[in-house]
Amino acid sequence: MYHCSDCGKSFKRQWHLHRHERIHTGEKPYHCSQCGKNFTRQWHLQRHERLHTGEKPYQCSQCGKSFTCQSVLRHHERIHTGEKPYPCGQCGKSFTCQSNLQIHERIHTGEKPYHCGQCGNSFTRQCDLKIHERIHTGEKPYCCGQCGKSFARLCVLQIHERIHTGQKPYHCGQCGNSFTSQGHLQRHKRVHTGEKPYCCGQCGKSFTQLCALQIHERIHTGHKPYHCGQCEKSFTRQSDLTQHARIHTGQKPYFCGHCGRSYAYSISLRRHKCSNIKPSDFVS
């Protein structure tokens, strides 16, 4: 057996150890001649090069969909067969691919191996870290072709585009309400069930949404990831930063339809309506 001196992991073959050690050294010896991107493994480079050539040599015999690599085709085929060969030893939940099982197992172990160099936040998946880092960089690489609005995540762009198309493909079986995303439907269903699956490990408070739990946890950690570029004040939520920024910009997006006055905050408009508009004002 060959052992990694950095983390102690063992390998049956020496070349497996050498390949693994690149995780620690950061070595990426395989270079793309098109864009200069580097890779730790040769087959990763070969798969990447198909992005430039458009080649998708692996085709699904069931639906005809094509893929750049064979492993992705095999995972896709399990959609048709229903096969989930990777079960979790802790809870019995099964997965179509081993990588999804490994990510899931971190729920039980609490492992978060991907760390943000800016704020120290940790994540169970590398893709979640990359998305998080866009909070710091401000990068929004996904642009709406209709209105030009940009987004940090592709899935958020796809949901946004349904504003333009009017598409609401997810339907509630209880009340018939329709939604633009499956996440919105699942969140809505909790209105009927009363389920609050996201629990704070510090105080035990439960929430219907993961994002609400994450915001709440910042009360305990003191983490304020949203920074004002004008005065350097920090906030726990992006919506709080957006509201605060109106102090600097003077923006007042909330209009009273009765008198035409504008307000920076929706609560200010509501107070104005309650104190100044009588019910008789709406009688014709």
From TrEMBL:
* Annotated source species: Ictalurus punctatus (Channel catfish)
Which Gene3D superfamilies does the record associate with it?
A: Classic Zinc Finger (3.30.160.60)
Q: Name one Pfam family in it.
A: zf-C2H2
Q: Which GO terms describe its molecular function?
A: DNA binding; zinc ion binding
Keyword annotations from UniProtKB, A to Z: DNA-binding, Metal-binding, Nucleus, Repeat, Transcription, Transcription regulation, Zinc, Zinc-finger
Among the GO biological process terms of this entry, one is: regulation of gene expression
| Protein name in the entry | Zinc finger protein 239
Query: Where's it mainly located?
Result: nucleus
Matching InterPro entries? Zinc_finger (IPR050331), Znf_C2H2_sf (IPR036236), Znf_C2H2_type (IPR013087)
The answer on whether this UniProt entry bears the keyword DNA-binding reads: yes
PROSITE patterns xrefs: ZINC_FINGER_C2H2_1, ZINC_FINGER_C2H2_2
Domain C2H2-type: from-to ranges: 2-29, 30-57, 58-85, 86-113, 114-141, 142-169, 170-197, 198-225, 226-253, 254-273
Where is the protein localized? Nucleus
Write out the GO cellular component annotations. nucleus
UniProt lists the family membership as follows:
Belongs to the krueppel C2H2-type zinc-finger protein family.
